[in-house]
Specification:
This protein is of the alpha/beta class. It has helices at 3-30, 49-65, 80-88, 101-110, 145-154, 170-182, 194-202, 216-222, 271-285, 288-296, 308-328, and strands at 38-42, 69-73, 95-100, 121-137, 161-164, 187-190, 208-212, 226-231, 258-266, 299-301. Strands 1, 2, 3, 4, 5, 6, 7, 8, 9 and 10 form a 10-stranded mixed β-sheet that branches. Belongs to the UPF0065 (bug) family.
C-alpha cells in the first residue's frame, strides 16, 4: 500500500468512525427526557380556574424535570380546541394536557364535532377534584339556593339564563338537570371559559352561572358584584367552609357534583416518559405550599400515584361516572 493510498484509507476510516459516533448521538439524546421545554395545554382562556391550577403545577413540574414548562391557553369548543392541540402533537411527552372529565370524556361522547374519543388520551396522574358552585348576579333577590330556586319558579314564562364554560360541559348538564328537577326551565348561555363567563355574570349578561370555584369569587361577592349561593360538593377544603353545601338545601340536598381533573397525554406516549411526568406531578402534589394554594382555590387535592395501572384504573372510573351522568340527565351520546 502506497503512502498516498494509506493516507486516503485512514481518512476514510476516520470519517466512517466519526459518522458512526454522530449517528448514535440522536438515539443517545432521546434517552434523556425532557431535553427541551414542555408545553402544558390548558383548554380555556387565561384567568380561569384551570389556568390558575396549571400555572401552580407548571412551575413545580418545571423545577422537577429541570426544563421550562410553557402554559398554552386554547379556549373554545368546550375544550375541543385544546384537546385537539394535544392530539395533533407527537406522542412524545413534550405536550401534555391540563384536562378534566369535560374535555376528555364529555365532549367526545356528546359533541358530534369532536373527532376523537376518550381512549385517545392516557391519564398520567390525577391532580384534584374542583368544587362546582352556583353564583347569581347581584340584582336577584335571593341570599340562599332555595330562595333562588323559588325565584326561578316564579319566572317560568321568562326562563332565567345561566353561563357555563361551554355546550355539553358538566356545568351545562347540571343546569339543565337542575331546571328539570325543580320544574323551571333555564336558558343556557355558553362562553369560551370560566373567566369570560364570570365577566358576563358580573356584567349582568346572565342571571346565574355554574362554574368551578375560584378564590376571586369571594372578593367579587364582597364588592357586591355577585353572590355565591352553594357548592355542589359533599364537603369542602377548610378555606371554603364559608360556602353553603348543597346538602343544606331543603329542595335539592342530593344534587351533588364535582369535577375531576388530571394530566393527560396522547395515547402511545412512551411509558418511561409518562413516568417522568407522573413523578414530577407527584412531587408537586406532595408540597404543602402547593396543596394549600389548590385548596384555597376550592380543590380537593389528589394523592400521588405510583404507576400506570393506578392511572388506568382512575381513567376507567372517570368514564363510568361520566356515563352515569349522561344517562342521569337523559342525554344521548354522539353517534
Amino acid at each position: 500500500m502506497t503512502t498516498q493510498t494509506r493516507r486516503r484509507f485512514l481518512q476514510y476510516a476516520g470519517l466512517t468512525a466519526g459518522s458512526t459516533v454522530l449517528a448514535g448521538l440522536p438515539a443517545f439524546a432521546e434517552q434523556t427526557f425532557p431535553s427541551r421545554p414542555l408545553s402544558l395545554v390548558v383548554p380555556y382562556p387565561a384567568g380561569g380556574a384551570s389556568d390558575t391550577s396549571a400555572r401552580i403545577f407548571g412551575e413545580s413540574i418545571g423545577k422537577s424535570v429541570k426544563q421550562q414548562v410553557v402554559v398554552e391557553n386554547y379556549g373554545g369548543g368546550t375544550g375541543l380546541i385544546g384537546a385537539n392541540k394535544v392530539l395533533a402533537a407527537p406522542a412524545d411527552g413534550y405536550t401534555f394536557f391540563h384536562g378534566s372529565i369535560n374535555e376528555v370524556f364529555l365532549s367526545p361522547l356528546l359533541n358530534p364535532a369532536a373527532r376523537y374519543k376518550p381512549q385517545d388520551f392516557m391519564l398520567a396522574a390525577p391532580i384534584s377534584d374542583a368544587s362546582i358552585v352556583l353564583l347569581i348576579r347581584s340584582g336577584i333577590p335571593a341570599d340562599s339556593l332555595d330562595k333562588f330556586l323559588d325565584v326561578a319558579r316564579q319566572n317560568k314564562s321568562k326562563p332565567l339564563t345561566y353561563a357555563t364554560v361551554g355546550i355539553d360541559s358538566i356545568y351545562h348538564l347540571m343546569g339543565d338537570a337542575l331546571g328539570a328537577r325543580i320544574g323551571a326551565p333555564f336558558l343556557h348561555v355558553p362562553y369560551k371559559g370560566a373567566a369570560p363567563a364570570l365577566q358576563g355574570l358580573a356584567g349582568g349578561e346572565v342571571d346565574f352561572a355554574i362554574l368551578p370555584y375560584q378564590s376571586s369569587f369571594d372578593s367579587m361577592q364582597e364588592q357586591g358584584r355577585l353572590k355565591v349561593l352553594t357548592s355542589f360538593s359533599r364537603s369542602l377544603p377548610a378555606p371554603l367552609k364559608h360556602i353553603p353545601l348543597i346538602s343544606q338545601s331543603r329542595q335539592v340536598p342530593d344534587f351533588e357534583y364535582a369535577i375531576s381533573g388530571g394530566y393527560f397525554v396522547k395515547q402511545g406516549t412512551p411509558a418511561d416518559r409518562i413516568a417522568v411526568l407522573r413523578k414530577a406531578i407527584g412531587e408537586a402534589l406532595a408540597k404543602p405550599e402547593i396543596r394549600s394554594k389548590l385548596e384555597a382555590e376550592g380543590r380537593a387535592v389528589a394523592q400521588p400515584i405510583d404507576n400506570q395501572a393506578q392511572a388506568n384504573q382512575l381513567f376507567d372510573q372517570y368514564m363510568g361516572r361520566v356515563s352515569q351522568l349522561i344517562r342521569g340527565v337523559g342525554r344521548k351520546t354522539a353517534a
